[in-house]
Amino acid sequence: MADRIKTLIAIDAEVDGHAVQSLLEDVPSLNIVGVINGLEESWRALQEGKPDLLIVACAGYSDRALYFIDSAVKQESERAVVVVSTGSPNGFVRRVFEAGADDLLALPEEPDRVAFALEKAMARRRGAAVASGVALAPMICILGPKGGTGKTLISTNLSVALASTGHKPILVDLDLQFGDVGLALGIRPDKTIYDLARSAGSIDADKVGDYLMSHSSGARVLLAPTRPDQASAVTVDFLRDVFTVLRTMADHVIVDTPPGFTPEVIAAIDNSTDVVIVGMLDSLSLKNTKLGLETLELMGFDPNRISLVLNRADTRVGITREDVDVIIGRAPEVFIPSDRQIPISVNDGQPIVLQEERSEAARAFRALAEMYAGDNTRPEPAAASMNGSDSPAPKRRFAWRS
Ligand SMILES: Nc1ncnc2c1ncn2[C@@H]1O[C@H](COP(=O)(O)OP(=O)(O)OP(=O)(O)O)[C@@H](O)[C@H]1O
Ligand SMILES: [Mg+2]
Fold first, then answer.
1. What percent of the chain has pLDDT over 70?
2. Is the CB of residue 149 below 6 angstroms from any atom belonging to ligand 1?
3. Which ranges of 222-320 would DSSP assign to H, the alpha helix?
4. Reported confidence tier of residue 183, pLDDT bands at 50, 70, 90
5. Ligand 1 contact via 148 beta carbon (within 6 Å)
């Protein structure tokens, strides 16, 4: 059979290689070109054989295997890697995926289930290769380490502002337990990310497209589950796939997040080209905003790709804009005033940027959208300064005037 998958099986120590081999020999789609005992020997065979699929058999947690997988993935990102574990994979699963494997199968398993998983891994890897060949859209993650700072307000208005100027944004509601993007946009949750996660088969653009809801502005939305107990069906690995696919389907992917650095938020940040941090004019929020910036720095996120938005920026609470620059260490790019129309617009499910076009808040949202709308789709580097006093104003800084 000409199109069988050229497969190399690498056997880690303490694994019964014969048992693994006889299981995989029953998978008709595999063309097994080698079954190699020992990972060092397997590494050499990998260089010579150039298989399309690498199966790594381990007896449970194995640092050796993790190192081997990581090296194999780094060396050839288009090759699919599947791990089969003859022992308990507890504590191993996350590490295996972090190392870059496509799937992990705990044995014993029925041959047809094994065949399905291997073919799925191959299909995903081919999909990823296609995705890497097309330009991935920027993904903008809206973060606010503290609850209620205005993340949902900003992500919905930014998406709608982009859509109403001819762009094709997709907004993801990643507040998996209490997401309210649907309410803020007046969209009925006929389909949500939960339904997508529960659907069978692989994740591709056609499939994901079926689960997006449309807003009248043209923005498409992947809504959060309708009940908190459904959130656990949405795993981090699934999200990573979904983010990549969405970035092939849109001009911009915008992600509304829950407060804090939850695992799904971290996955979103990992997949994002840009971050918008939302702070408010109170000392707790500013402290958390600064902590959020420091966390992003620790994660290695490029500070030039982070924008700071100060919401309710006119509230008279004894903290000045200059104080903000000093506390946070950088100047916000966009200021959004408090506006009584905002809660009304949220309650009506009508984003203010469409309803009150001439309001200062709507202008601020349009300014934010313009920062991401250009051809280069990147915000200009914001002036980061630890003393906040001698930094030049960022060129795209939107000066909100009271
Ligand atoms: N600039 C503003 N002027 C008036 N009201 C505002 C403003 N910003 C936010 N609000 C109101 O504050 C509330 C919280 O805003 P929003 O839901 O956007 O915050 P959030 O950061 O998404 O919250 P959570 O962390 O709970 O997801 C909303 O009712 C919104 O209408
Ligand atoms: Mg929210």
1. 89
2. yes
3. 236-247, 263-271, 283-298
4. very high
5. yes
